[in-house]
């Protein structure tokens, strides 16, 4: 617990330090540290996102064969498991993508410390652009961040996803974001917005990487 508290304190004090550069405006401190933290994690998150996208593509490629196996051996669970494992091993597809799991484990402590520090700094309050007090919710910011979140999801979505699923894929995160930020401090919304902007950049880069691999 002591190490956790110290980690949150370091992140929080970093936000206050950056705020001093902008005449004590804590909103800029929140955004600056959030951006730097996300920038530091960008190579790892990019690798994880690329790995996940490649895994999804591979699973879609063998989906018809897996469906045929499920139909053929639906009454024989042991044979079904063996055949499924054989197909995945032949294609070099891991049953459980450990890269994504380990990456999430590595990122989680930092992201939780960042979020806790943001909440503490947001409680200080202060004005930012049209927002009178970042310690209170702001409807306009909630809607803006929801739109950016939808853009982030769209940037990372696979091009072969059916239109109906794509619309749902965009609508649900945006709706959840709007509802959540409607009741949260605007300072948390700024953190969320910066994170979503980085997500847009990540999605664009992942698409380019996958496009280059497909062209080979």
Task: Please characterize this protein's 3D structure.
There is one protein chain. With 216 residues, the chain is mainly α. It has one domain (2-215). It has helices spanning 2-21, 26-72, 77-91, 98-122, 139-156, 163-182, 186-215. α1 (2-21) crosses α2 (26-72). The longest helix has 47 residues, at 26-72. The chain is elongated. The mean pLDDT is 78.
Features:
216 residues, 7 helices, elongated
Proportion in helices: over 70%
Q: For the report, how would you describe the main beta sheet?
A: none
What structural class should be given to the helix and strand makeup?
A: mainly alpha
Topology as H/E string? HHHHHHH
End-to-end Cα distance, whole Å, is 49 Å
Overall residue-averaged pLDDT value: 78
Strand content: under 5%
Overall number of structural domains: 1
| Bulk shape | elongated
Query: What's the Cα radius of gyration?
Result: 21 Å
Helix count equals 7
Can you tell me the residue ranges where pLDDT is under 50 for at least 5 consecutive residues?
Answer: none
Number of strands: 0
């Amino acid at each position: 617990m002591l190490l956790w508290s110290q980690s949150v304190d370091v992140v929080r004090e970093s936000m206050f330090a950056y705020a001093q550069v902008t005449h004590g405006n804590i909103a800029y401190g929140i955004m600056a540290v959030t951006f730097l933290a996300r920038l530091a994690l960008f190579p790892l998150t990019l690798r994880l996102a690329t790995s996940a996208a490649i895994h999804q593509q591979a699973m879609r490629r063998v989906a018809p064969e897996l469906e045929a196996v499920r139909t053929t051996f639906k009454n024989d669970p042991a044979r079904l498991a063996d055949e499924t494992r054989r197909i995945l091993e032949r294609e070099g597809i891991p049953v459980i993508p450990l890269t994504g799991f380990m990456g999430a484990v590595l990122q989680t402590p930092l992201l939780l410390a960042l979020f806790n520090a943001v909440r503490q700094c947001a409680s200080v309050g202060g004005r930012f652009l049209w927002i009178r007090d970042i310690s209170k919710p702001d409807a306009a910011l909630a809607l803006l961040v929801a739109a950016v979140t939808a853009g982030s999801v769209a940037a990372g979505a696979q091009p072969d996803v059916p239109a109906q699923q794509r619309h749902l894929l965009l609508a649900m995160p945006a709706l959840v974001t709007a509802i959540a930020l409607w009741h949260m401090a605007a300072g948390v919304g700024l953190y969320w917005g910066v994170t979503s902007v980085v997500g847009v950049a990540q999605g664009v880069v992942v698409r380019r990487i996958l496009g280059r691999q497909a062209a080979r």
